[in-house]
Amino acid sequence: xxxxxxxYIKPPGVAEHVSCGGVVVRKDGNRILVALVTExxxxxxxxxxxxxxxxxxxxxxxxxxIAEEAGFTELTLVKSLGxxxxxxxxKRSWGTMHYFLFTTGQDKTRxxxxxxxxxxxxxxxxxxxxxxxxxxKELIEKNLKKIKMLTANI
Length: 154
Fold this sequence. Notes:
Blueprint: E1 15-28, E2 31-38, E3 49-51, H1 58-70, E4 76-87, E5 93-103, E6 119-124, H2 134-142, H3 144-150
Parallel strand pairs: 1-5
Antiparallel strand pairs: 1-2, 1-3, 2-6, 4-5
């Protein structure tokens, strides 16, 4: 499936939801690595993110979703990277996604999402793989200088 511009046009009357997730980075020597997730049936990667649950603030939701989908529990918040909107995978709901930049010292993890078999891989922030959602890759690329500057001393 190819994501085109139709995912980024909000139809009238569609249900809405709020999701949160993050860009998780760590240093390997002089390189900045970013953690991305995929599933066995997909070739592309995504940032870990998901719906906000009742009683959660945006950062709490991002941390929980990152823990579930990518297994990272030792996260340091660096800053908010803003939000974007698009339709969900089935085009049934409009989501506003809030993304945060986190650093971690964790290398190996175990995702805990019971409904998906997520696989976590590290990539150089300067050589990202094919990503399923174009706006997620654009988020990283748009903030590349800021991410490098903010994580220079980790």
